[in-house]
Design brief:
The protein is an alpha/beta fold. The protein is 34% helix and 22% strand. It has one domain (8-124, 153-283): Ribonuclease Z/Hydroxyacylglutathione hydrolase-like (Metallo-beta-lactamase, Chain A, 4-Layer Sandwich), CATH 3.60.15.10. The strands form four sheets. It has a seven-stranded mixed β-sheet. Strands 9-10-11-12-13 form a five-stranded mixed β-sheet. Strands 1-14 form a two-stranded antiparallel sheet. The radius of gyration is 21 Å and the shape is globular.
Length: 343
């Protein structure tokens, strides 16, 4: 029999804000995001008489709070929300963790790095935070107007996420977590976030993939201003290997897009995507170029102001990866910006 290639979607897209049972005892809830990526998936796990477990939360915005008010008063009413699992620190996943836990008494479960990062970003209103971002932008060669605009915007995380609870239950790689009638093993994803929770059922038939593996887009793999010389792309590509033994008939529940089958093919596509982007980056620095000058070569869409941070972080990631692997050289120009040149 010929090998089937490509991914296959497991369910139609449900309406926003209405839980849809995508697997026995697991409900898919699509929440709106005010971004080009216009939604995030959260998962409601029926724990029987014990109540409910929720995975991720959406932004901390009045609109999302209104949806959660309806969910708690409607589909989840009558049994407690006893546990909130946050896959990673990004505001579309962690934004309402503090409010939901305070309101319901749910215990927050997270990895240590993701909890620490969420606490820090939600609470940091210091001048030093803005200084680090400005240094990152100037090293990338951003035009002065962009540097000023981004500094004036300040810590955008705090506009989309409240601080998570001050205490939590730590999740670690390899531990077993019971969700409803299933047992899952924690697999840590890296690159998109430093210590992201994904979970594979004991039977190997269901993967809660968070943002590590998405069906149509590559997750953002970006360098943060707090660690401008980091190489998250190597971390991302290496951690994909943790999923390569999972069969193609495993149902994958991603945090964006539709549940799907065909994980091995999707892993191959993600590797190919970044290999192709690395070649584009190399072609863009045959002559010395700043990160801002290299950036347009990596993307097939026009970068609008709201996407500049993601695009610049991805460009940093690809160039730091090439630098680490000895394929480019870099030096500081008189303006303080890095110049890269292909070797």
């Amino acid at each position: 029999m010929a090998k089937e290639t490509g991914i296959r979607y497991a369910a139609p897209t449900p309406p926003y804000d209405e839980p849809f049972e995508v697997a026995p005892g697991i409900f898919w809830l699509r929440l709106r995001l005010p971004l080009r990526l216009d939604h995030v998936n959260v998962w409601l796990i029926d724990e029987g008489a014990d109540g409910w477990t929720v995975i991720d939360t959406g932004f901390d915005t009045p609109e999302t709070r209104t949806v959660w008010n309806a969910i708690l008063a409607g589909p989840l009413a009558g049994r407690p929300l006893r546990r909130l699992i946050v896959t990673h620190y990004h505001p579309d996943h962690c934004g309402l963790a503090g409010r939901l836990c305070a309101r319901t008494g749910a215990e927050l479960w997270a990895t240590r790095t993701e909890w620490l990062t969420a606490r820090w970003l939600a609470l940091d209103a210091t001048e030093a935070f803005d200084d680090a971002y400005e240094a990152y932008d100037r090293a990338a060669g951003l035009p002065e107007a962009f540097v000023r605009q981004r500094r004036q915007a300040g810590n955008m995380y705090r506009k989309r996420a409240g601080p998570p609870p001050a205490s939590y239950r730590r999740v670690v790689a390899g531990e077993e977590i019971r969700l409803g009638d299933r047992r899952f093993t924690v697999i840590i994803g890296e690159g998109h976030a430093p210590e992201m929770i994904t979970m594979l059922s004991r039977e190997g038939d269901l993967l809660i993939a968070a943002d590590q593996i998405l069906p149509r887009i590559s997750p953002v793999v970006a360098v943060a201003p707090s660690a401008p010389d980091a190489d998250p792309l190597t971390e991302f590509l290496d951690s994909l290997g943790r999923y390569e033994a999972i069969a193609g008939d495993c149902l994958v529940l991603p945090s964006h897009g539709r549940p799907f089958f065909g994980l091995p093919d999707r892993l191959a596509e993600l590797r190919h995507h970044h290999a192709e982007r690395l070649e584009r980056a190399l072609a863009a620095c045959r002559e010395p170029a700043t990160l801002f000058e290299i950036m347009p070569a990596l993307f097939d869409i026009e970068i609008v102001p709201g996407q500049l941070g993601f695009a610049l972080g991805e460009t940093y990631a690809h160039m730091n990866h090439l630098l680490r692997h000895g394929r480019v050289e870099r030096w500081r120009g008189e303006d303080g910006a890095w110049r890269f040149r292909r070797l």
